[in-house]
Write a structure and sequence with these properties.
mainly alpha; 5 helices; YlbE-like family protein; YlbE
């Protein structure tokens, strides 16, 4: 792995965690480190739910949970 790729991983702990969970990326970065860092960034965002759709899904889940808690509270109040 080249020095630039190694420094990139040291500065991005989420990317390092992703690589530890998906070891195939060690091979990708060892072969084409500079070219593959952009692909790695995309994969990390998808994996950790940092994309727009991931955030939207999380917010939707939270709204559904709050709605369910309100319904339960209304049922218990009666």
């Amino acid at each position: 792995m080249d020095l630039a790729t190694y420094q990139y991983l040291q500065n991005n702990p989420r990317a390092l965690e992703f690589i530890r969970l998906n070891p195939i990326w060690y091979r990708y970065l060892s072969r084409d480190g500079v070219k593959r860092t952009q692909d790695l960034e995309k994969e990390v965002k998808i994996f950790f739910g940092q994309t727009f759709s991931g955030r939207l899904n999380r917010m939707n889940d939270q709204v559904q949970m709050a709605s369910m808690l309100i319904q339960v509270a209304n049922i218990l109040k009666d």
